[in-house]
Structures
1.
Amino acid sequence: MTRTIHLSLDINGKQHELDVEPRVTLLDALRESLALTGTKKGCDQGQCGACTCHVDGKRVLSCLTLAAQVEGRQITTIEGIAAEGGDLHPVQAAFIENDAFQCGYCTPGQIMSAVACIREGHAGSEEEIREYMSGNLCRCGAYNSIVAAVREAAEMAATGVAAKDKAEVA
Amino acid sequence: MTIMETRKHGDAADGMVGGRFSRLDGKLKTTGGATYALEQPVKNLVHAVLVQSTIAAGRVVAVDAGKAKAAPGVLSVFTPEDDLGLLVASDWFGNRPDNQPFHPLPREVSFNGQAIAAVVAETLEQATEAAKLVKVSYEETQPVTGLDDPNAGEGRLVDMLSVGWGDAEAAYAAADIRIEAEYRTPREYHVPIEPHGLTVKWEGDFLTVWEPSQWTHGMARTYAEWFNIPADNVRIVSPFIGGGFGSKAMGYTYSAVAAAAARKLGRPVKLAVTRPQTFTAYGGRAATRQTIRIGATKDGVLQAIVHRGASETSVLADFPEQTGAATPLLYAVPNLSTQHRLVPVNTVTPGALRAPGKNPSAFGLESAIEELSYAIGMDPLELRLRNYADHDYQSGKPWSTRQLREALTVGAEVFGWSKRSHEPRSMRDGRQLVGWGIGCGTFPVLKAASEALIRILGDGSVEVVSGAIDMGQGTYTILAQTAAEVLGVPAEQVDVKLGDSSLPGATVAGGSMLAGAITGAVHKAATAARDELIGLALNDSNSPFRDTGANTLVIADGRISVPRGEGPSLTLAELMSAIGRDRIETQRNTLPEGANGPEDHKRSWTTMANIEGPTAGDLSMHSWCAHFVEVKVDEDFGTVRVSRVVSAFDCGRIYNPKLAESQWRGGIIMGIGQALLEEGLIDERFGRVINNNMGDYLVPTNADIPHIQVISVGIPDHDASVLGGKGVGEVGIVGVAPAIANAVFHATGKRVRDLPITLEKLI
């Protein structure tokens, strides 16, 4: 059999132990070994953004990242951004509210990019959001709504109002 | 799936059906909880990886699988040597040759990228590595690589696609104004973000297939026929589909390979088609060319349209991309002739991609109409209105509804069309040339029967159950709205189960027909459930309504009560408890009485043979749209940016405007890609798709897309469907590419007749 290595990965605040070959990507480790299938495989070539995760708070393409590279780092996936009690992250809520997806397959990657995009300070205008969200392809064509959702979530992050509260007030 | 966090926005007068509900599957899709085909937790799974041919035509002489078989973790290598024991399945219409063997890994190679072997191993990495070790020897023959190949020929005429009336050639020859041009579209690909693939598991003679499916019942039939097992032995499970656009309505050769491998190995198999492999694992839109001649009077009244088109197909099967599909429908013209030819080349058999036929057809006609507008110096909006078709000239029938005039006038008003100056190169913004163009679109109303089950449960909640699917159109949501409206309960109280061939039958999610078909079935089943519930409430000895003397009861806001009267008012849960029922179930379909037996069900749910076309009745029924596009073209570099889009749609009644608007925008964005970016590039020596990845086959990114304003001008069309809607999903792309080509001409004075419009064609 092929040689395997033991990894201990910090994903969404929990330690996960796994034995995989050194060539296994973070994406395949999540999907095939750890049952964390929210992170999607769209191209496996770093072209579509569907596999976007956070490593130490920064967005990475998990299909171009070996699982062995991220031992000792903090990995966050789509499964790990809602609040502990289950309340959606403001970006998740804004995506639903603005209908920022159709098939839903690019959505986890879009949301992970959007969270990072806001944190990076690149959500200041619609033009800037379009540019900094362009690493995530959406073939259903939800781009207008994605921009609206990111903008709304960024404004809420700035003013501290949660998406749900705002929607219910409206 | 469980429905969560439904909220209604907009005007309460919208009603339940017609309300701007957020997607019921929204929480699952935004939290990673929506589980797609390759994500099913199946135990003891092994992985299959395809090996595709590297020649376009010829024969596999030998496959040396020795090294692959010896590689770590490899369980088996399947090659053309292996008889997988399969039979050819029916086509979409249910036609099937008797007992003809099916070899999904064939010895004869008819296109580059054809699956010819598959490696199965314990892990994905092992299978991927071993697939590279498979050595194939070929005997190569000269391929025909595309429409322009000198050996391709003119193709053969498809008689059934010839349409004509009057004497088009004579009227064209006699016309004051004549224009003639050839328009071309390249191979285009679906590129759903979820690549194709499947997970398959056998339990004895029973097969479960988790595969993205636009048609669970149709695909179940295919597997049953391949393996010669009863249809009920196959279950296709597809609760979520990561984009289809026409590409996920059937099982393909790799599907058969995965299922056959699972049977041979006695273990569940997962086969993920890689992104590059998707470009030849199934067909995209065929390349087309069409010549259009239009004859008109000097004041722009159409006299004749002569259309001659062709599309490529494979050497294995005919799939016409009908370049004349929209030509007869858009304008009033007294003389018309269209013909379409099929040119076999060494490609994977092309398939249906969003608005097949209508899309390239409209590119030709809507470009040609604007060419005419410049030839006679008339505003292209005025030209279109002047030749408005008051009925369907092809069938001679009246339209059911046709708000295309409203689409044109409302769209023009919102866009600000009246501020346009007609001369090319007459509008600019600094170094950017500005151009405005129009493109109209159409898509037929197709009608099909479907079936649905409604359950009212003891706790007052409602379930809608159907084998129909939701690939992002919003089926889950609109079915909850439909049932909620009939049953008088909030949409939050309705759960919807879809995407499983073991559930009641439904037609394909294709041809923009599913919403009309399945809302009809749900409406009927929910009405029956409501009647049954009211009947029990009036008659059951334990019902508080029994002695009220009421003839009927009303259900609203989740409560059942006596109309306009004093008396009890119960929640559905309280009533169910009072009458001691834990469920009421009604299953109904929309097949006609007298044609509702098992064979009718099989034919209707698993084939397309019973689907009615747009002129099957006394009327001609279609969706319509008009796109208004602004482009900015850099004068020095020839780069084109779409800067503004206003599109007005007549799709009849809209069940959920929020979701319909998303679909329209999605179609328009795919049209922007088609106009400016998308082109399958074929190596003419080897017939290989050389840009078979998402970095080289470009689809629009967020930064390519401006704000798109979409407007509904439709009115309910109850001839088209029970609830009054017409198709939404496909019409949006139709007419976008010519609107952009027209805007580019207006900006630059350069007419690009072959898509995509790339900068080298403008400088």
2.
Amino acid sequence: MAALGFVGGEGMSDLITMDDLSNDEILEILDAAERLLPVANGDVYAPLLQGKVLGNLFFENSTRTRMSFESAMKRLGGEVVNLSSVGSSVAKGETLYDTMQMVDGYSDIAVIRHPRQGAAQYSADAIEIPVLNAGDGAGNHPTQTMLDLFTIRQAHGTLEGLNVVLVGDLRYGRTTHSLSHALVRFGAKLTLVSPESLRMPTEIVGDLQSHGSDVVESENLAGAIADADVIYMTRIQKERFPDEDEYAKVAGIYKMTADDLAVAKAGMIVMHPLPRVDEIDPSVDSTQHARYFQQAFNGVPTRMALLCRSLGVEVPKEVGE
Amino acid sequence: MSEMRRVTAICNGTVVDHIPAGKALQVMQMLRVDIGRSNPISLVMNVPSGKAGRKDVLKIEDRELTQEELDRLALIAPNASVAIIRNYSVAEKRQIELGSELVNIARCSFWNCITQNSREPLPHKLRVISADPLDLRCSYCGRSQSIEELAESIL
């Protein structure tokens, strides 16, 4: 890899799963995101993506991912065109393939969120411009993982060998699927806390263990707090349940309060991809452990770095000079 | 063959031998030789075999299966042997090959995969993660495929 930045074989690349990135590439992107922090804050203007257009395709609801991609693109001088399934030809039954052909012509890079698993890879196969997966059903969400890794490294100074507890909906939760894959590559010890019906899919647990990772499955959150470096809470996602009765059985099963964190290490951080419902009590917000709002902001510099990488644009060593 | 022949030799066609015992009906389903055709098919199940103890055999008359059709068998009968018969003699022996990806052989069985929309035009693709034990995953959604479900999803 060239010293100045992202100079791949063809200069442009998709990001569909974390398998698309080597550990060195992950660290390089996190370094670039760190350099872009003053741009993300609005303190420095660096039009690295001037003249480029992002196609922001959200076939499913989103607040943070959509806004942070849009903010990232605009802070870097680029433009954004948006599509949502409501009010577009998608509602008339247009195939994803046909929709993507339009996007190929209207933009230089596409970000896609879709309720169907595999939609991002399918889109990448359908068109020429780079595609970033912003969540496909219960599949992958690698840009969320990158901002999660950024947040973890920001707090602990390293990604190596941390004790990470993932909590909540591990069956349908795509953020935890992508994040767990990435963490084991950096030697994390994982504790997977969920109710029986929402356990991590066995094929994913098998993949994690095949990396030689120490993976423990449990239903007990309280017992996992004291040793944790990171506790990653997730929402039980009502919209992913095929059956409402099944949802009712597990809704509200984990509720973390500030009192629960009395046994935690001083440097332990609590993360959440948001939105939260009741799994993190507002009393946690004012503790030294709360990191979820910072995490949400970190979506901007991280996605800036990812947009630059996929478009083959290097991030200078000194941004803004 | 030391014992009495159970099915007579065929003049022209394809013989699929050494199918795992009990799998011949699935093989027929996968090859689609049982749909919309009138050529004779002989099927023998659970006959003694030196190699595997028991085996199934399928004889399809007047039809030479193509390599593409035969490669479907890699899913359930990867060690089957195939002979093309012409005028009562073995004219060709064909190997079943499990490549690195199965294209348009079966549809991903996961209910929420993007490929479940039958109007989506890109090919159905299953990536071979491991040949033994067989581990196939959809190239789009990444889900592992159960062989039983795949037999129902043959294209």
3.
Amino acid sequence: MSNFVPLESLLPVESLDRRSWLRAIAVGLTTLGTLEVEAAQHVHAETAAEKAKGPYRVKEFTAAEYKTLQRLAVLIVPADNVSGSALDAGAPEFIDTLAHQNEQIANIFHGGFAWLDAEMRKRYNATFLAAKPEQQTQMLDALVEAGRELAERQNEELVYQKSAVYKDFTGYTVRRANELGAGVAFFDWVRKMTVDAFYTSPVGFKDLNYIGNRALSRYTVPAEAMEYALKRSPFA
Amino acid sequence: MPQNTSSQEVFDAVVVGSGAGGGTAVHVLTAKGLKVALLEAGPMLDVATEFKEHKVPADYEHRGAEEGGKAYFGQGKPFGFFSTTSGGWQLEGEPYTVGEGSQFQWFRSRILGGRTNHYGRMSFRFAEYDFKPYDKDGLGFNWPVSYQDISPYYDKAEEFIGIAGTRENVPSCPDGKFLPAPPPKVHEMLVKKACDKLGIICIANRRAVITKNLNGRAACHYCGQCGRGCQTASAYSSAQVQVFPAMKTGRLKVFDLAMAREVLTDNNGKATGVLYIDKKTRTEKIIKAKVVVLAASACESTRILLNSKTKEFPNGLANGSGLLGRYLMDTVGFGLSGTVPALEGMPHYNTDGYGGAHLFMPWWLWDKHNKLDFPRGYHIEIGGGYGMPSVGGYHGAARRWGYGANMKAKIRESYGTSIGFAGRGEMIPNIHSYCELDPNVVDKWGIPVLKFHFKWTDYEWKQARHMEKTFAEIITAMGGKVSGLSAAQRESQGISIPGTIIHEVGGARMGKSAKDSILNGYCQAHEMKNLFVVDGASFASNPDKNPTLTINALAWRACDYLAEEMKKGNV
């Protein structure tokens, strides 16, 4: 191939814990003189502010709404033998915070919670929170199923709209949203914000085993990873 | 708007813009002992607040979705909250317009260092044939300079900025002065093996990231977040590497939040300075200088010249040819992704490296054009690895897998198994692609704005189809499955929207004479000896090589020449 830096793959990837790394960077910057000392202090001040946070106080949702949100978080990303749940990862706090900052998000969730309880009463004569766990998952399964159906129809329509053959063909239109349409849209919001909160949290980092954004003095690729993939590739 | 012209200080040179061209200009000119003024339309760069490379989403309660969840409504920062893009596709109060039937998007940065704060840092030399494209296939225009003219300045730029890469002797992508390159990652090794099988050249990437200490800058610490800015300046940005050191010479004065409107001239065919709007006070101000060096970006410099109308040049300064704004080019872009089963279940490792792919594929068919249905070529960039989880990254996966334990397990299994390819190809300059002043619109500073017209031709579309076929072949050869575009999407989205690769160049192209070009081979206006344009505006063609390194080299050469000519009293 060529004169790459040789693979020093037998050495373990050097890593520092986050705090000592921030310190190392700060010291490095100060001695280099490429950045003022305030810069390093700025980094430390923010880290300290993070630690000073107390227990979360709900800002936007009612107690019942917030409990529903917490339950949904656990259902969407449950704990397993690898990592904790979206509740552990702070998904309800994240959603409450942004909803409090943005009326548009707040309305989606206030309305969504109301829709969900109304639908649950129709189906099971109980609010989402009061229903049995299997009733809760039945409801979510129905929303996922309805969501897939809608997406499929939308994709088909896209194909027809973009196709030169069907350019002027007006007989094909998306079927009207089914009776769960509003719930599908709401669940999509809960789910996307919940997975966002989960995977961007320390719990989610652990779940994915994300080990990047560290300061290394040298970059190496472990031989075991290389061997693993090559063995399973067409180039074995 | 009030005018304040009280300043009597006359600089040796005034440089407009602080990106790759302007940064190089102030570095070279102050080193030659000249007294220089630098105008930047944005604020000073404060790396402590601007650069977020060592942050993680959990450091912010919005996790990167921004205050009020702006990102959920498509109103977040371009390229995400953490990127150091101080600018965007639209700037409040500073619009541009697009002609009917055209598409064009213009990314502008408004901060010291400009787009060098966040660019991809791919640093490829033009090939010998890139300077004489017309001689090769009868299309487009030759440059008035050759590879041999520019090569010494590629050397200087590479040695000063610091480029990691390897010597490979590939004619389409000449070797430079390289620092050691980091080793290929696992997915890249699979790509290389697939390329070997397909006869595609795959070599170490060349990026403006230092892998050894250089000029007081610390070597890369492999956090992999170059797009978020680099506090240690291990990744090149003109602000940190050129402007800040130039300020320390005491010969550079920076005027920030200074929006240049026009080049001022006297009655003897000479530029005398620049008129700018001081955004802080909403006042017109003037900088007087013996030489004017524009480096505001290809289109912004073109705009300044178009707005500098005189009796002699009623259609814009140094525009006797009428070609100012003409033959605007962007890079042809196309992307395709897939999933690779061989990567499933692999022991995770840190795939950050020096912040971009460690391998790339230079154009490999430079002598096979008789077998192709399009002229010129493209290079291929690789994406993949265990990237930092971010807001928006899992919406698609969640929709596919529903919710609950199964969804969580599937996302975990598929993490890091994707591979992506981006083609970056050469467009042929055409008469339908240009910018002009919009006669009906001014920005909030009262400056007439640009109107863009742009068309891809069959040359570009056919090249994009070749990219698509090639990427699918590579993915398949890796044992992977193409997951990219559906047939319907391909019809409408099979090529990048013009401008969106942010390689827009041309507009004040260089050439042999004042009849067929604006500038000569030294980026000097044919029709005004003390006027230079040292950004991408001078490009006569837009080879598949990302333009920044060539802007660095051309600016360096232009400023060397300028300083010499000044000594001789010729400018």
